[in-house]
Amino acid sequence: MQLTCVGKDDGELKKLKKLAAKLHANVDFRGIVSEEEKERLYKECDVFCLPTLSENFGLVVAEALERGKSVITTDGAPAWKEYNIPSSTSTSSSTFIYLEGYREGDDYKRVNLLRDAFAQLSPAVNDAVRKADYAAYKRHIMSDSI
Predict the structure, then answer these.
(1) Are residues 4 and 70 in the same domain?
(2) Is the domain of 61 the same as that of 39?
(3) pLDDT at site 76
(4) Rounded Cα gap, residues 128 and 139, in angstroms
(5) What is the pTM of this model?
(6) Domain interval for residue 87
(7) CB of 70 within 8 A of CB of 46?
(8) Separation CA 5–CA 132 (nearest Å)
(9) Can you list the pairs that 53-58 forms with residues at least 24 positions away whose Cβ atoms lie under 8 Å?
(10) pLDDT tens digits, 32-91
């Protein structure tokens, strides 16, 4: 599973890179990208996720939905709740998941909310999440026992 992070650094990039390295996660940090690159990334992605703590609207959510992508966003983008899209809605080509309680949670709760949301998307995604969880668990156990 590949995670691509796009956007400007709001002071968290160093922390995120350190966490990705610790978890041996396959993360590509892109920073700010051109419109052409953004279009290519939308086309290539299976799921678009905006796990925000504070967003006035989240135009990128609309862009992803317009392109038929499955979307996960949080109560940090409250405008999306006003559209009365049920918290978990599926069409033949995409799924919309709106996570309540993300803003008030700690990092552990946020990670679990996101993991569970990704697991809802499809059996293949669920399987990839379980494998990634198990691999991270094994690395943690092995590093603690050394």
Answers:
(1) no
(2) no
(3) 83
(4) 16
(5) 0.72
(6) 46-138
(7) yes
(8) 18
(9) 53/102, 53/103, 54/103, 55/79
(10) 999 999 999 999 888 888 888 888 788 888 898 888 888 888 888 877 776 656 555 555
